[in-house]
Write a structure and sequence with these properties.
Distance between the termini: 66 Å
Shape: elongated
Low-confidence stretches: 365-377
Mean pLDDT: 84
Helix content: 40-55%
Number of strands: 11
Radius of gyration: 33 Å
Strand order of the largest sheet: 1-3-2
Order of helices and strands: HHHHEEEHEEEEHHHHHHEEEE
Structural class: alpha+beta
Length: 377
């Protein structure tokens, strides 16, 4: 709604036409002329402020003004009446525009047809058009924007409508949040909501969000790098990691040897979890995660070598080949040791009792661990 419309609301509610200086002044008017004079400042002198800033700046000054301390209650009543009228008109205008607008997108991100009345479907009115989204697709868009980074440095960007590449208004972000809160039949992973809820707690302020949660955004950036990078990049990082590990091994039998012709995809699949630990040990902003990752990486690579001593090596096997004349020839064939035993995750070994105690790992030279339990005596 324009400033002119808001000014017209103020003039009508305060009956500004009937003022003390008017030759047609009606003395039966019950609105105090002092209040009319003060509300005259509400429809003038915006000083480059937005309408919202201007009217609440005006209200703050009024309730602290010594000259109208005896009329504070009346000022509050009229201000609330103006606000109520303003929001009612805004709502009517929005409903009219909403009904008049058309649904320009009725497919999800996988191009499946969706309907506004279906479960987990949210309709967003944006720039005079309506767009249908699966809430899961919308959360992916939100997380992609909030976890945007460059060289592991968090650079969250505004959440945009993918169909017109324009940022969503803050009111739309609140609408998405309350839609999620109010619906109890939504089905999606809880971790998809984590960052969005933290963004809500920052009043959808990007600067405040990055200041408060930069350490968490770094963790997301590391995981995104390991999960979404090109095969060539991951392969180089893994080879570098293995070389660093081998430097620390005094005996050659403890070194991990990967043949240069070993399939890259199989190596990445086997070493991806180790690469995540390496990235965290190098780039995490959380000290205990960084130290634990460094310790776990060395320990797990050592265990991997013990359980899979031949992994990554090449072997030559002889196979029989029958010629056209029926004779059998022995030929050489190169094969790789690509089978491996996965390491167990010890964190879930004591699942039914791990709510009673916790293990605090102290990553020092002696690799000590301390168990702290609840005292029930």
């Amino acid at each position: 709604m324009s400033n002119e419309t808001f000014n017209l609301i103020v003039k009508n509610i305060l009956n500004m036409k009937n003022n003390f200086f008017s030759p047609m002044y009606d003395k039966s008017d019950k609105i105090n002329n002092i209040i009319k004079c003060y509300f005259g400042n509400l429809i003038n002198n915006y000083y480059n402020k937005s309408l919202t800033e201007h009217k609440f700046y005006f209200f703050k000054n009024c309730i602290h003004d010594f000259y109208i301390k005896n009329h504070i209650d009346e000022v509050i009543i009229y201000f609330c009446k103006i606000q109520k009228t303003y929001h009612i008109l805004n709502r009517l205008i929005f409903k009219h525009k909403y009904k008049k607008s058309k649904i320009v997108v009725s497919n999800d991100m996988q191009l499946n047809e969706i309907n506004e009345n279906e479960k987990n479907i949210i309709c967003i009115y944006h720039f005079n058009s309506r767009y249908l989204f699966k809430i899961q697709d919308l959360l992916k868009i939100i997380n992609t924007s909030l976890t945007n980074s460059y060289l592991f440095f968090a650079e969250p960007i505004s959440i945009k409508n993918p169909y017109n590449n324009l940022p969503f208004n803050k009111s739309i972000l609140y609408y998405i949040y309350f839609y999620i809160i109010e619906k109890n039949n939504l089905f999606f992973k809880t971790n998809q909501l984590d960052l969005f809820f933290k963004y809500y707690n920052c009043d959808f302020n990007l600067s405040l969000f990055i200041d408060k949660y930069e350490h968490l955004l770094r963790e997301f950036a590391i995981e995104n790098y390991v999960n979404n990078s090109l095969e060539s990049c991951l392969y180089e990082e893994i080879i570098s990691m293995i070389k660093e590990f081998n430097i620390d091994q005094k005996k050659s039998k403890n070194k991990i040897i990967i043949n240069s012709l070993f399939p890259k995809s199989k190596l990445i699949k086997a070493m991806k979890s180790f690469l995540l630990l390496r990235m965290k040990s190098l780039y995490s902003l959380i000290p205990h995660i960084k130290e634990n990752a460094k310790f776990d990486l060395y320990y797990k690579l050592k265990e991997f070598k013990k359980k899979n001593p031949k992994f990554g090596r090449k072997r030559i096997v002889l196979i029989d080949k029958i010629s056209e004349t029926g004779t059998i020839h022995k030929i050489h064939k190169n094969e790789f040791y690509d089978k491996y035993i996965c390491l167990k995750n010890n964190k879930n070994e004591n699942f039914l009792e791990n709510h009673l105690t916790f293990i605090q790992e102290i990553n020092n030279n002696n690799s000590e661990t301390e168990t702290i339990s609840e005292n029930n005596d």
